[in-house]
């Protein structure tokens, strides 16, 4: 009996000591523990700003985006210097950066005057994880397609596709993929009544209305949600599983079956995750992709602070391109600090504080 009592007391002391150690650990590392336990967002995004990409010839790109497409120029400036090198992750960077607006949304085109990067691979496919596009809303897919065809744009779909009515979340949506002069993917999309944002259904005589979202191919939706939803605080706005012949012809991917997840912040266009359940032969983004390569895209995300950026990088929740938050005050870009990063699939995400 005495031995049993001693054993019981020893076990109690062992458990008490273990509990004390855990509590001390929580005090010592309280910020990360409480963050995980409370469900707080480590880097809350307040809005999606411009979607940007690199072009090889700015004048040619402007001819396309303001001639074939009705974007209007917002700003046109040349950037260089140490802050810009750190922000872009390109040593010796000198760029011409042009912002264009369509409706309420903006895109940002960047031509690297030095150093020049690599062209887009000629065999990139819509299920490769390098894929990204912006979806331009149109009020009539037939009229919009006629405009593009008149200007001889390069098809990336076989033609406009109307998604079938059996699909409750996507049925009735019409879309068409095409390419710009540098072969970046673009999309025109029209929504039937009851689908899409309310403003896409307001009366207008314009053919091209604005940007609904940017779409990116991901390897694992759940892993991407841990980044966009759990780390950045974006909200899931819709989900769908799309397949059948119309989807195959839209994406030009035979046997395509996609898990699609739409995400939105409080302001700006959405970010749409495209996971190919089939075929699973899409290639990963090149590990050495740089901002001066023509295949580079970057989506600018507004946040109120960047103090958690380095901690998230140490936890491998964010991949840094910039070495940390960059003082952007010397640059005429409209924000005080920023950093270029990559998401789990290599897509460029630039965080900015205004």
Q: Which terms summarize this structure?
A:
2,3-Dihydroxybiphenyl 1,2-Dioxygenase, domain 1; 18 strands; 354 residues; alpha+beta; 25% helix; 9-stranded mixed sheet; 2 domains
Question: If you had to describe this structure to a student in words, what would you say it looks like?
Answer:
By secondary structure, this protein is of the alpha+beta class. The chain contains 8 helices and 18 strands. Helix 1 packs across helix 2. The chain has 2 domains: 2-38; 47-278, 2,3-Dihydroxybiphenyl 1,2-Dioxygenase, domain 1, CATH 3.10.180.10. The strands form 2 sheets. Strands 1, 2, 3, 4, 14, 15, 16, 17 and 18 form a 9-stranded mixed β-sheet that branches. Strands 5, 6, 7, 8, 9, 10, 11, 12 and 13 form a 9-stranded mixed β-sheet that branches.
Poorly predicted ranges: 1-38
How many distinct helices? 8
Please state the overall shape, judged from the principal axes of the Cα atoms: globular
Which architecture of the largest domain would the CATH scheme give at its second level? Roll
- Whole-angstrom Rg: 24 Å
Question: Quick one: CATH superfamily of the largest domain?
Answer: 2,3-Dihydroxybiphenyl 1,2-Dioxygenase, domain 1
Summed up, the domain count is: 2
Distance between termini?
A: 71 Å
DSSP strand count: 18
The description of the largest β-sheet is:
9 strands, mixed
Secondary-structure element order, N to C? HHEHEHEEEHEEEEEHEHEEEHEEEE
Q: How is the quaternary structure best described? A: single chain
| Structure class | alpha+beta
Overall residue-averaged pLDDT value: 91
Strand portion: 25-35%
